[in-house]
Structure formats: C-alpha cells, structure tokens
Amino acid sequence: MPEFGPLVSAEWLRDHRGEPDLRVVDLRWKLGGPPGREGYDAGHLPGAVFIDLDRDITAPSGPGRHPIPSREQFQAAMRRAGVNRGDRVVAYDDAGGSVAARLWWLLRFFGHERAAVLDGGLQAWGQPLEVEAPAPAPGPGDFEAAEPNRAQVVDRHGLHGLLLDARAPERYRGEVEPVDPKAGHIPGARSAFWQGSLDERQHFKAGEELRQRFRDLGVESGEEVIAQCGSGVNAAHVLLALELAGFKGARLYEGSWSDWSSHPDAPVATGPEP
C-alpha cells in the first residue's frame, strides 16, 4: 500500500478527488466563533463533509476545554461522516492546518494511520468551491476506532520533558488571555507558536527548515517533547511539524493551558523566557 500523508498538496487532492476510498473533512473552527459550519455552508471543497470540533470530536467532560473524545464518540463521528475502515482521510481548515491537524492526530491516536492534512488548507485549493452539501452516502461508514494509544498523551502530572507551547507569543508572555483563568505560561515551557512552522503562503516549511527550527528550541529527539497550547487543538500542529521534521514520538498535554490554569496551586510564569 503506497505511503499516504501526513500532508497532501492541493494538486494531489485535485488528482485523486472522487476516488471511493478518499474522504475529505472540513474542520474549520475559530476560538470565539463564528461557527465553522457557516464557512462550510458558504463554500467548501467538492465532496467534503463537515465535522464540528466541539460537538463531534470533543468529549463532554475532561481536562481542559477540548478533552479527547472516547473511542465510542470518535468512532460514531467518523461513521456519520461516511469514513470507512480503509479510507484515506484528508482534513483541512482555513487556518494553516492548526485545527485540521487535530483530526489527523486523533485518527492516528485511535489507530487509523491513513490520515493527512491538506497543505495550505482551503486557500490552496485554487478551484471553485461547492455550496451544496455532498450527496448522501449509501449508509454510514464502517470506521473502527482501535483502543487509544494513551502513551501519546500526558496529564499535568506527567510534564517531564521539553514542553513546547504552541500559543501566540503574546499569550505565552501573559500579555493577553482571551479565555482561560490565568495569563502566562507553564514554567519551563518554551514558546513555539504553531505559525512558525509555516511559510508566507501558509504551507509547511521544508523538512530541514523545520528541523532547524526545533533544534533551535532545544529538540534533540521527538520522544522528549510534549506539545501544548490553549486546549490541545493547535498543539497537534506542532506534533505534525515535528513529524515532518523527522522528530517522531512527541506527546500531547491533553488539557494544555486551559487545564493548567484552572488549578489554583499551579505556578505561572510570564514574560518571554521559559
């Protein structure tokens, strides 16, 4: 079986669209809104289905604002989206892959390796968008979620390693905090804004550029790295960039800053230094 992912280009997707084992997922979402569904209804990639980050693939309770869904919840969401066991799934958004990478990560967390992010997202498509909803599938998909690989996740007591904070620098420094109880960052975490892995076209930088970026942040091996952000969504973008750079095995702090900042006894650092 030929290798697939973790990125595909718009050219690749245009060449393969309509193939029976290919499912395209629109995962547009923005902190504070508007709802991603509005963007999907206004125009989406031909044949794409919409998955709601908050409603469909976020657990109703757990650490932070976007806890990982249960195996049953995730499997049901993928089946409603028409995803089958052997399908190739391409996720896209309009934010440089910062949200789409969450679905890429979740698919692999639940054992589905045939997952990719559209490099450059919606803006890279370069062809007319579709307004109508895709034709209904003959029935729900038969997607099977495996037991989750919990080795890929840590909680706030397991932050032993190199912690990379994917949030915007001003949030890291504690100058602004739009949603969480405290401003600042976890002491020792290094600022690794997810957009730093993208070029001016919002495509991922080449592998060697990414390797140098993460080396400059102190990364020597993927296994030592823990990625976090505000709630565990944008951190998946850092995990994807690390993999593209050849640093595999990095983990996710599930609750991220939304979890850490909710604990009154959790220390907080501010300013540009870890």
What does this protein structure show overall?
With 274 residues, the chain is α/β, with parallel strands linked by helices. It has 2 domains: 142 residues, Oxidized Rhodanese, domain 1, CATH 3.40.250; 110 residues, 3-Layer(aba) Sandwich (Oxidized Rhodanese, domain 1), CATH 3.40.250. Helix content is 25%, strand content 12%. It has 9 helices and 10 strands. A 5-stranded parallel sheet has the order 1-5-4-2-3. Helix 5 packs across helix 8. The longest helix has 10 residues. It is globular, with a radius of gyration of 18 Å. The mean pLDDT is 96.
Q: How confident overall, as mean pLDDT? A: 96
Count all strands and give the number: 10
CATH topology (fold) name of the largest domain: Oxidized Rhodanese, domain 1
CATH architecture of the largest domain: 3-Layer(aba) Sandwich
- Give unreliable regions as ranges: none
Question: What gross morphology would you assign?
Answer: globular
Question: What is the number of independent domains?
Answer: 2
Could you tell me how far the N terminus lies from the C terminus, measured between alpha carbons in angstroms?
Answer: 44 Å
Strand order of the largest sheet: 1-5-4-2-3
- The portion of residues assigned to helices is 10-25%
Q: Sheet bearing the most strands, described?
A: 5 strands, parallel
Identify the CATH homologous superfamily of the largest domain.
Rhodanese-like domain
Total of helices: 9
CATH class descriptor name of the largest domain: Alpha Beta
